[in-house]
Please model this.
Amino acid sequence: MTEVATVRRSRITPEREAELYAAVLDLLREVGYDALTMDAVAARTRSSKATLYRQWGGKAELVVRAMRHQKPGGIGDVDTGSLRGDLHGIIGREDDCVMEQNAALMRALAMAVHTNDDLRRAFKDLLVEPEVDEFQAIVRRAVERGEVRPDNPALAYLVHMLIGAFATRTLIDDLPPTREFLTSYIDAVVLPALGVSPR
Model:
């Protein structure tokens, strides 16, 4: 599937692809997933709908690839030599404004992911699973360095903890996630759960 998708997208320049993705994310924030149409994307980007379907196959893949594209590189590339440094480094790649925009995108997709099989599959295959794999690489390095015991039961919940803090900040506190909040959460909750000193 990935190979086919790569072949499909090969005719669009990286600059044009970035422009299309930005427009898709703007529309997603404005109207939500269900109301976002390929017609609207085509109009916003001055593209033909046929081109969009040829390049991405459908709305679900286009939306998820747009979300993946706006992320600042792979999580697995962060390697500071300590788990605390790596987790803080991941949080530090995005400023508070970008985090707030990403939280708005997640809210726009939350219900649709549960009710739309195509979107759930694309979201899992193209966004969630690659990020989980990258987090596991970070955890493996921490285990190999002796920072975390390999049998620590909290290891299985690292991604859940981080995503949960990001996703529920607005719901619980009526505030967007911020660097300050997430780094303090890592030090107060995630690292102690893993048996790592937060200092």
Confidence is low (pLDDT under 50) at residues 1-9. Residues 117-144 form the longest helix (28 residues). The radius of gyration is 18 Å.
